[in-house]
Design a protein that fits this description.
39% strand, alpha+beta, 16% helix, 5-stranded mixed sheet, single chain, Cathepsin D, subunit A, domain 1, 31 strands, globular, 6-stranded mixed barrel
Length: 462
Amino acid sequence: MMDLRRLALAVVTVAVTVVGEFGCCFGNVVTFDVKHKFAGKGKNLSALRAHDIRRHGRLLSTVNVDLPLGGNGHPSETGLYFAKIGLGNPSKDHYVQVDTGSDILWVNCAECDKCPAKSDLGIELTLYNPKSSSTSSLVYCDQDFCTSTYDGPLPGCKPNLQCQYNVVYGDGSSTAGYFVKDTIQLQQVTGNLKTGSSNGTVIFGCGAKQSGELGSSSEALDGILGFGQANSSVISQLAAAGKVKRKFAHCLDNKDGGGIFTIGEVVSPKVNTTPMVPNHGDQKGTIVDSGTTLAYLPSTIYEPLMTKILSSQPALILHTVEDQFTCFRFGENVDDGFPVVKFHFKDSLILAVFPHEYLFQIREDAWCFGWQNSGMQSKDGKDMILLGDLVLSNKLVIYDIENQTIGWTEYNCSSSIKVKDKKSGTVYAVGAHDIGSASSMKFGGILTFLFILIALLHSSIA
């Protein structure tokens, strides 16, 4: 499977504008413990952007699920969010990237070739071993899951031949293996700010071979948990079994870290919505992707947008850092000195991105732009708008796959939201989580700040 084929959960039509302000056209709940992928390490900006480029080229009753979050989306500190889930019987913990831009769940498996044995993220990696789980079973190529995932029978399929998977990312990194069925353990919402363990059965990838950055210890996780629209995604499988609704929401807090991630029906706060576009074969539209850190715009939008933004500060001295980031010194309040960028979607839905969100601070008086030119990346994505954590942070984003809508609102992601239990009709509060290490995250941020500061000073001398 090529991740480019189903890159995003939501592709929507949009227009852009800059205002002085700048506007732009363009039963049941489960929770997860989530942490930012790059928390606690000295991650430079090139590595964050390289990660983004790689992506562009990857028993429950009907319940609400709470997925506790950690980390933050600040480019100079962290890069992605990841969660802790349980797999197998007895259940063992696995840390997986939470990704709205891909479909399947896959984890590294025992006897894997070139799977990482350790991670620099401050987590303990665990290889999944189907032989050690009493509830695991293999998935074969003639079974419905396999034929539906590949849109028909696989050539050469024979009885007892395992259903294989292969995901290739834009930079050539890949994961390959076979599908298994086993128990997944999630946190079911049981009351106000309360959860309890609950199990379901899902089919997921058992990684037998990794290549590229997926095998790197510096960014290693146990796997990826996709929240895409395909029937192969965990949320679609659980929904087909009547266990959850095909609805989920996240609120990524890059102020205090962590945030909220829940599967189920959010009843408060209310949000305005815009239609999703189920098929983006023309490679146009807007992708909303929690697995991407920065924000990518086509050249036809990026260039006039930057011109308009910079016109508000004509005396600004710009420096190019790492050959790709536009940075500068500014000692005042950026929200007073730069315009708000607004993305206008169908049905009058607006996504406002404030200067303190699209600019990230690398020290007290030094800032860089989070906007990137997608036209400089690849032919396939040059006409796409791709919105990552940089602009999704500090907003409650609600995905309704059942009704093909997506919506959002500005929100305090360190607070709580309310979800409705499908069976009883009871409304429960789901709160924010931060399972990251504050001290390690700050240390990683300091290393990055120093790296960029040196680059800025070098640019100044030059």
